[in-house]
Amino acid sequence: MTVPTTMATDPLFDRLRLDELRRRPGVKWQRVAGDVLPAWVADMDFAVPQVVAEAISDTVHNGDLGYPNWPDGNPLRAGFADRMRERHGWQIAASDVREHTDLIQGLQLLLHLSTKPGDAVAVQTPNYPPFLATIDTMRRKRVNSPWLRTSEGWVPDIAGLADAVASHDCRVLVLVNPHNPTGRVLSREELAEIAAIAHRHDLLVISDEIHAELVFAPHEHVPFASLSKDTAARTVTLSSAGKAFNIAGLRCSVVHYGPRRLLALRDAQPPDLYGVVSPLSVAGTLAAWRHGAEWQNRLMRVLDRNRRRVAEAVREWAGDAAEPMPEATYLYWFRAQHLGLSGNDPVGETLRRAKVLLDGGPGFGPDAEQYLRLNFATSASLLEDILARLGTMARHSRGT
Question: Is the dihedral of CA 149, 152, 158, 159 positive or negative?
Answer without folding.
Answer: negative
